[in-house]
């Protein structure tokens, strides 16, 4: 008999386990293009976990930003954008308090649209500065990354993945205008899938279904000016026609920070994974009510 069979079973099991889950067993190189603000705070936790599992992480961000600062579990690479920190803060979140003012709905809609236009212009400008930063793009291109991890609400990461011919993984809570459905060709019946801002549930009366079909039309305009510039930028870089849906269909995987405990049922595609629990990293036990329920 071969001597190998005499190795005690626990040792063999231990060795196998080490080979399977050892820290550096399958370390990949992950290029991360995050969305700033609260989106980044959720993503940061996931990156920390990826780092702990032996993956190498490089985060790319404009040097002027809101929350993306150096940490010891990733390498931060920054690029210049033509704004000072004060200008950037003012333009991005300058007038958000207006949302709480009591004004007419239409006035509010126009105001929010105006602010959104300014903010999305800054992000588009920032994306352009990255793509035309020859040194940084050259460096990223020669670093042989395995994957781009990005939040598609800021589709710059999806464009970057296309430009560098890398697979993309999307990490998101949601995207407006059903671009997740369109990008994955996921079935999306208006009669059953409640649309953003409608307050409908998955059981709708006839009138609610009509509302469900009409609401998305008003958002189309916003999505047009927010997302079309990324399709134009991708077309420019790749020298071929790229549509918004092309940009959103480039992901190999969609990691949704959602859970059907909170969300209504919806059709999903095989490359969609629900990871809602990731936002519960800093969970605390529920407070003890000591029989005070109902007070
Ligand atoms: C990346 O490098 C490859 C191989 O050198 C080259 O063909 C390609 O054009 C480069 N891509 C970019 C975006 O610079």
TrEMBL record:
Residues 1-27 form the signal peptide. InterPro entries: UDP-glycosyltransferase, UDP_glucos_trans. Keywords: Glycoprotein, Glycosyltransferase, Membrane, Signal, Transferase, Transmembrane, Transmembrane helix. GO terms for molecular function: glucuronosyltransferase activity. The keyword Disulfide bond does not apply. Pfam families: UDPGT (PF00201). It comes from the Eukaryota. It is found in: Membrane. Its EC number is 2.4.1.17. This is glucuronosyltransferase. Gene3D superfamilies: Glycogen Phosphorylase B (3.40.50.2000). Its main location: membrane. GO terms for cellular component: membrane. The gene is LOC112867489. The keyword Transferase applies. It comes from Puma concolor. Belongs to the UDP-glycosyltransferase family. It is a single-pass membrane protein.
């Amino acid at each position: 008999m071969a001597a190998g069979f005499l190795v005690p079973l626990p040792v063999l099991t231990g060795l196998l386990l080490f080979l399977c889950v050892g820290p550096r067993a399958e370390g990949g190189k992950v290029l991360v293009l995050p969305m700033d603000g609260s989106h980044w705070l959720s993503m940061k936790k996931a990156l920390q976990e990826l780092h702990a599992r032996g993956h190498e992480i490089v985060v790319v961000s404009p040097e002027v930003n809101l929350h993306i600062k150096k940490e010891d579990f990733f390498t931060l690479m920054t690029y210049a954008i033509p704004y000072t920190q004060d200008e950037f803060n003012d333009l991005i979140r300058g007038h958000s308090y207006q949302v709480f003012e009591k004004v007419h709905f239409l006035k509010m809609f126009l105001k929010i649209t105006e602010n959104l236009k300014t903010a999305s212009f800054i992000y588009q400008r920032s994306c352009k500065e990255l793509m035309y930063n020859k040194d940084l793009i050259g460096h990223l291109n020669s670093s042989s990354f395995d994957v781009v991890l990005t939040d598609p609400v800021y589709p710059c990461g999806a464009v970057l993945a296309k430009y560098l011919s890398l697979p993309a993984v999307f990490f998101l809570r949601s995207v407006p205008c059903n671009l997740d459905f369109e990008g994955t060709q996921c079935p999306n019946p208006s009669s059953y899938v409640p649309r953003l801002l409608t307050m409908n549930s998955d059981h709708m009366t006839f009138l609610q279904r009509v509302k469900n079909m009409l609401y998305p039309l008003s958002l189309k305009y916003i999505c047009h000016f927010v997302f079309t510039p990324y399709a134009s930028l991708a077309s420019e870089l790749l020298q071929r026609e790229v549509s918004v849906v092309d940009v959103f269909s480039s992901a190999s995987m969609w990691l949704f920070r959602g859970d059907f405990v909170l969300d209504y049922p919806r059709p999903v595609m095989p490359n969609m994974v629900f990871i809602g629990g990731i936002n519960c990293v800093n969970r605390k036990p529920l407070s003890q009510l000591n029989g005070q329920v109902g007070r």
